[in-house]
Amino acid sequence: MYAEKVLSGMRPTGRLHLGHYHGVLKNWVRLQHEYPCLFFVADWHALTTDYDQPGGIVNNAWEMIIDWLASGVDPAQATLFVQSQVPEHAELHLLLSMMSPLGWLERVPTYKDQQEKLSQKDLTTYGFLGYPLLQAADILIYRADKVPVGEDQVPHIEFTREIARRFNHLYGREPGFEEKAREAVKKLGNKRARLYDDLRNRFQEKGEAEALEQAHALLGEAQSLSHGDRERLFGFLEGGGKMILVEPGALLTEASRMPGLDGQKMSKSYGNTITLREDADSITKKIRTMQTDPQRVRRTDPGEPEKCPVWQFHVIYSNDEVHQWVQQGCRSAGIGCIECKQPVIDAVLKEQEPMRERARMYEEEPQLVRSIIADGCEKARKLAQETMRDVREAMGLDYSR
Ligand code: TRP
Ligand code: SF4
Fold first, then answer.
1. Which atom of ligand 2 is nearest to the CA of 331?
2. Of 58, 117, 145, 215, which is most buried, counting CB atoms within 10 Å of its CB?
3. Is the pTM of this model over 0.90?
4. What pLDDT does residue 205 have?
5. Does the domain formed by 277-363 have CATH 3.20.20.70?
6. According to the 3-state scheme, what is the secondary structure of the chain?
């Protein structure tokens, strides 16, 4: 049975914080039970903007991977790997670059946005322009169906789909496609072949999307097919030629509601984070000294939770009963701010307990992390190599024959 594949990557930023946990990692942990998942460290991507300071990449990668593991990403369920250890990504990036129109890259909104945002850096580089294409290679090389990303990354997924489409259009037309496809239909066996033809007609003549979906499922279940024949039959359904690269869809991750200690978005560059695996004293101190409603100067002044970053934490961490207690106590000056913060402190510490527990093993034995990544890279590489064989062949670079 063909299962849809999920793939996502993160640049190696070092220690992750609660914003990453609530925004991304909890989602990964959920997905790993539902799909075959590939999660990787996008270390080459880090160099597209920080090529002048490469020193921290490796260490940041290991720290980040420990945070993934601490958050419950499970190497027995998901494949964890590092981009630069699967050099096939670079080969695909290169080959795709041959057919990527410059205008498409220049028009990706993050290109200009990031150049403006990071104006202190010189980002008029070849590598930076190619960022979305490298990301496309990351995705297409695994024929990933679903890519969990935040809103800002959606244009990159759309770009990836366009590249896949263009690739299939340019290189999916092999000589004698139609005959080969008909031969492949026969290999499905009588019953399935009839069903396939029927579904294909319904899709092509009446545009029934459901028929297309059923045909995809049928091909997914047909085990005896070679990879090439399977691609032909996928392509044959919709006309055209072989579907060598798969168009992925974005799995939109809801924006994290996790605010920083000062009420702005939690972000390392604002210095308002609580990191995962942070020690308990430090967390306690950070929350105790967190800003509150600025109008509430003295203990006897009433406050307004809506104007207080601590309330945002309660929204995430506390139940209705505590919410009521805060709202009433704050507005009537019935509770003090330190009192109000205690349930938040308790909840954050409780959330981190299992994380610290899981991380301890890996901190004490870094070799464990190394071997998880070595296994993951090996698995990823096998998949990447399969795709590359087809890509090279399609682009006229097969020297094995
Ligand atoms: N560009 C992504 C980010 O900044 C990271 C990334 C690189 C990625 N390659 C990817 C995400 C492939 C998903 C799939 O967050
Ligand atoms: Fe903020 Fe709580 Fe103090 Fe009110 S009582 S200002 S919600 S910390």
1. 4
2. 215
3. no
4. 86
5. no
6. CCCCCEEEEECCCCCCEHHHHHHHHHHHHHHHHHCCEEEEECHHHHHHHHCCCHHHHHHHHHHHHHHHHHCCCCCCCEEEEEHHHCCHHHHHHHHHHCCCCHHHHHHCHHHHHHHHHCCCCCCCCHHHHCHHHHHHHHHHCCCCCEEEECHHHHHHHHHHHHHHHHHHHHHCCCCCHHHHHHHHHHCCCHHHHHHHHHHHHHHHHHCCHHHHHHHHHHHHHCCCCCHHHHHHHHHHHCCCCCCCCCCCEEEECCCCCCECCCCCECCHHHCCCCECCCCHHHHHHHHHCCCCCCCCCCCCCCCCHHHCHHHHHHHHHCCHHHHHHHHHHHHCCCCCHHHHHHHHHHHHHHHHHHHHHHHHHHHHCHHHHHHHHHHHHHHHHHHHHHHHHHHHHHCCCCCCC
Superfamily for 6-172+248-257+367-394? HUPs (3.40.50.620)
Distance 326 CA to ligand 2 centre (A): 7
Atom of ligand 2 nearest to the CA of 335: 5
Residues of the chain with CATH 1.10.240.10: 277-363
- For atom 7 of ligand 2, which residue has the closest CA? 305
Average pLDDT over residues 257-276: 93
Closest approach atom of ligand 1 to CA 11: 5
Instruction: Find the mean pLDDT for residues 162-176.
Output: 89
